Amino acid sequence: MQINVLLVDDEPSIIQALRRMLRSQDWNLFEANDGEEALDVLRREHIHVMVTDFKMPRRDGISLCHEARKISPYTYRLLLSGQVDYSALREAWHAGDVHRFVAKPWDNTLLTIDIEEGVRQQSLLGYVHQFQQALTTDSAAFLTDSNWIIRLASPQLCKALAITEEDLQGLNLFSPACSAAGVTLEAEVTRQIEAGATWLGHFTLLDNEHQQLPSSMAISPLGAQYRLCVCDLNSSVFNSPAVESTHADHSAEASQESLPAAALHIQFEAELVGDLSASARLFSDLKSICRQGQDLYHMPQPNEFLIAARDASSVSELQDFAAAMEADGRLPAASMTRHEAPSDSDYESWLREKLGLNTRQVSSTEEEQTVLPVFGLHGEILGVESQQLGNYKEADWQSWLTTVVTTWQSHFGGPVRVILDSHNASAESVREFLPALEQARALHPIEVSMILSEEQLLSEQEEDILLHGELVHHDITRMIRHFGRSFLNARQILSLPIGGITLAPEFLTRMQEPRNAVQGGRLLQKLHDEGMVIYAGHIQHSELLATSHKARIDWLSGSVLSPEVSISELHWFSPDATLG
Prior knowledge:
The chain is of the alpha/beta class. The chain has four domains: 3-133, Response regulator (Rossmann fold, 3-Layer(aba) Sandwich), CATH 3.40.50.2300; 137-233, PAS domain (Beta-Lactamase), CATH 3.30.450.20; 262-267 and 289-354, no CATH class; 370-573, EAL domain (TIM Barrel), CATH 3.20.20. The chain is built from 21 helices and 23 strands. Strands 22-21-20-19-18-17-16-15-23 form a nine-stranded mixed β-sheet. A five-stranded parallel β-sheet has the order 2-1-3-4-5, with helices on both faces. The protein is globular. InterPro entries: Bact_response_regulator, CheY-like_superfamily, EAL_sf, Sig_transdc_resp-reg_receiver. This is EAL domain-containing protein. Residues 4-119 form the Response regulatory domain. One of its GO terms (biological process) is phosphorelay signal transduction system.
């Protein structure tokens, strides 16, 4: 398939520079001198990727991307400019008008990565479009990207939620604005999807008035970057006033009989459910005999299911369900185990425990606390990374830091280096760490680097500005997350009050190609020369490790070097450690 790329800029020299940069690619390159010309091209041609300047006569780049989305919604839209309102840009990005922004002057290696990524994503969107057209009009379905941002939605889903597709696009599926799903469920769904499996289970969506709309949902991966979500809204037990009144009656009955919540664990022989499609068929057959008020869940194993009930009527009918299942000719024989919730238990917590979901936050009062070892260029351990910002309180951090310091003093020399990723943590969570850090520094020198997102670093919110002041006061080095994916180029990053960067995972992958290795190496060397520390985490295989050594990366971590270990196991990496 021929790839068509549209270059839009009112300066011919910029278009020529882009042409030279892309000359090694076998792509059809189209040109436009302003936004109106670009729209004409989009109406005539099937454009896979559009690269546009921001400041142009007649129509700026953000406005062009907004209109291009209407004319050619499956064109990947990349905004390229040195002059842009970052607040307007972020608004356009969150709305889905702009897929990527690259600041001028650009780096050829990074921009080429971005355009090639656009080609890949556009191809996938094209396949998804064909797939979506094949869905019946009665299907309630939507498409998200790998970060669970909704990109497409079917008319049936929009009708059920009483919301337009435009308003759904840009929302995170697991955000409180979209669903009543918790963090634990997000982690479980993500785990299964990233393993290439289809997740099946109960999912509660929220309509435009924030009312709950329970449904069964199947979520399946579409390539590495997208997820297809198909809902069975007819399974909702709250779809009609009549059902609501029935639930009210059930609640009254439950209060009289005081029956506890219960669940039926159903297990088929593993050899009878050899693949995910067989598991999906069983789920559908089981769902057809569920009674009102009974919810069916898929367990982590494809041959196991759980049917749960929490009101008196549906709990009492669990036995009827077991009998109906045994009498159903479609279903093979299965073992069934009934579980009843303790009368004083929280239903949601009890149910998640039965489903095998890990709802427990790691506590530093536990004997074994974990860290991710971080290594230097020559294989020596330099420090540890923790992912617990947002989970730990001050007392937890005191315990964790004390244990790390004690272990480090016993086996290593020099100060402890601690790295924390805070891009998903609130300011309150970060502040839980600071007093514990000062107490621990009384025992031993500790150097702390905190990884922040671009948005955190550039935020002009008073709370964020105050937090940055506190980080400076506590002598904490700030690093920007995922260089190569952020909006900022190297020149802009060097102007920030930070001490280092972390590389986006695809950066090293791209550097494995010989034609990119030289340019990427020069870019990283420029950052090195300006005193920036470069950290490459999540290194999963030896080829990336070799590339990181060639690029002389300062800090390295990932499964190819070491998985997370307990703090007591850090001695494995000490200079005097012995094997065997």
